[in-house]
Structures are given as C-alpha cells and as structure tokens.
Design goal:
This protein has 449 residues and is α+β, with helices and mostly antiparallel strands. 34% of the residues lie in helices and 25% in strands. The radius of gyration is 21 Å and the shape is globular.
Length: 449
Amino acid sequence: MFSKILIANRGEIALRIIRASKEMDIRTVVAYSEADRNSLAVRFADEAVCIGSPPSANSYLNIPAIISAAEITDVEAIHPGYGFLAEDAHFAEICESCKIKFIGPSPEIIRLMGDKMMAKETMKKAGLPVIPGSTNVIQTKEEALKIAKKIKYPVIIKAAAGGGGRGMRICHNDVRLIGAFLTAQREAESAFGNPDVYIEKYIEKPRHIEFQILGDNHGHIIHLAERDCTIQRRHQKLLEESPSPALSNKLRKKMGEVAVKGSRSVNYNNAGTIEFLLDEENNFYFMEMNTRIQVEHPVTEMITGIDLIKEQIKIAAGKKLTLKQDNVKQNGSCIEARIYAEDPNNDFMPSPGKINVYNAPGGIGIRIDTHVYPGYEISPYYDSMIAKLIAYGSNRMEAIKRMQRALDEYIIEPIKTTIPFHKNVFSNPSFLRGQVTTYFVEELFNEKK
C-alpha cells in the first residue's frame, strides 16, 4: 500500500480523498493554488504545496508544477479527483514516466473512452446497444445533412472529445443543423482544443442512468448498481438518486450486466461509470464512459456501504477486488442534491463572494460533502459547486422527507445558492412520483413563469 499520495485537486473532493487516506494510514499532500491557501484541504492534509496562481491553467492544470510538487514531497501516487486532469491521458502517461502511480485507469483506456466516437464504436463491437448516428467524425455541413437525412430528425451534434454539455446542439431541421454544426465545432475547439464533432439520433425525453464500475488489475470487474442522473440543466447534473424509480429489478440486472460487459471489453481498471440513455419504451443505449470518480459517488457509497475512494486507492496499489458481484446489495434509497453558488431566479448566474452565515443540516440519514465554512470566500475562478447534500432513507419517500427537512435547515448567506431550486424540485408532484425526464428543469421553470 502507498505511504503517501498527492491530491491534484481542490474543494470537497480533495477533502474526501484526505479523509479516506487518513483512515488507511496514508499521508497526504495537497497541491493548491494561491486562491485556496485558506482551504480546509490545505489545513487537514499532512503537507501542502502551492503550485501557482488562481487561474486553473496556472495551477490545477499545470502539469509540470504538479509533478514537481509530487517529486519534492516524495509521493508514490497521485489522485486526480474529478475534473481538471482526471481524464487527461497525457497527464496519466507523465505520472507513469516519472514512476508515480496515477490513481485511475490506464492512459490507453482514458484516451480510448475520452474520444466519444471511438468509445461508441468500441462498445458497439462489444455488443452494447448504441444510439444510431455517424460512424466517424463529421467534417463538413454536407456530411452532417446527409447523416441527418438518414437517421431522421431530431438529431444531436456532440463534441468527440467533449463532456458537460459543451459542443452539444439539438437540431430539428436542416437550417438549424447547418448553423449548429459550425457553432458546435467552434465551441468544441475552445473547450477541448479539438473541433471534431459527430451526430446521433436525439432521444427525446429520456432518462439518464449510469452504472458504477470497479475493476482491478487482475481481470475482476463488477458494478455497484445504478444512479439516476436525469435531472439536469444544460446537460449538467443537478440531482442524483439510487435506486432509480424507473428501473424494474429485471431491467436493472440487464443493464448492470451490459455495463460490466462493456467495461470488460476494454479491460477496465479502477473506478468508472458506464452511462446510458433510457427511452420511454425502456430501451437503453450506451452514451459514454467516464474514466474517473464521479461527483455523485456518495450516493453509491450510502446504498452499498462501499468506500469508492478507498477502493480506487487499493486498486491502484495493485490489490485484488475483494468484492464479488453477488455481495453488492442496494440497501435503502439515497438522493444527492448539488448545491451551487448560483442564483436559480437569475438564470443560475454564479454568485461568488464571502459566506458570512453557514448552518449545516444534520440528523439521521444526512451527509454533507463540502469544503466551505463561515468566512469562506467563494472564488470566481472555479466551478461554482460548494456542497453535496446527501439524504439516505429506508425507502425513497423517507429519503425525500429527510432531504426536504435538511434543505429547510441549510443556511448559506449572503450569497445566492441553488437551495431554493432544490426545494421546488423536492415538492414537485412529477418528481415525487418518479416521473421525470432530462427536460424536467426546463419544464419546471416554464411552470413557474
């Protein structure tokens, strides 16, 4: 087992890794930017190294600075968390070349699954159901029109190297497609340094279901059941729950087996997720694979009792999975609400600034993963998520009731947060019935207007 690891991240995920590491008697080093000098991660890590100024390009994306910090502190491994360099194959390769273990899958898997077209073709060959669409990158608007005519509108343009909704456009006709194609290329180039896009049939009003995967370096791969990530805004997840109210036990078993099959086809190692779209007829389609720990991993931890960060570290250290598929059980129900420093009544405008009042909810069944505290200054340089509020219950309604109570207790002032938004969600009849689609947020705000 490692004796010391470096955490190449910030915020709540940095704290989460520190906590798991301490329980494993592993010393931690946090690489931090000047903006995070007063962060809890810096306070609670065994060592901390400043790697640059606040902009991510100068700090959390600064590979030479991170590697230098790892070398001067003599760590054996680097945990990238999520975001930043977590799915950067080049970074994983550099770690390997410097004899530092990257806590994540191999560079080859990251690169393969990071290219959405290659990932789709790989899974198609493995026998997974995929959404109809182009088999190669689309180079011209003429090609785009030809594909759209073949698979029929509506279609969706996606960035080949993309994620998080960037470089993504929905089109219902030729005129929209031509304009959106050029816009998506520019956005993909700006966001990922790669203008390549592809086209798929757009599945209207689907659910977004992902399966948590764990694979070791000895050929053992299991899934830890699903998370329903349907409630999103602009393709960014806002709320996740497990078990999904949309899945029967039969469908859950089938999707889980398919997720493991796809992961085994690429010899996947470490933690990851296979993501599916589920249509109104319960047909499901492979969408993408995320080769990292997910923001919403606490949902799976709460219903299985399995610490995913510890499993990541053990797998990276070469340990065999001790878990068997038959030992993985879903117990109870869990829901996670992402709390952002954003104003939901003003088009979710970011709300950076100082937190003067902070009261965290508590009680049975409530978990909060956060890095903020009274007096904390929310920086404009990074993602605006400031907390994950997690509610667990013996069943879905109990988890919802606990979440409603916790949201009433949660006070963060004077900044604006998405707490009022979540209160609306958790009192919405469609959500309470478990009848939602990826259009839920748009529909909710149209109702308010």
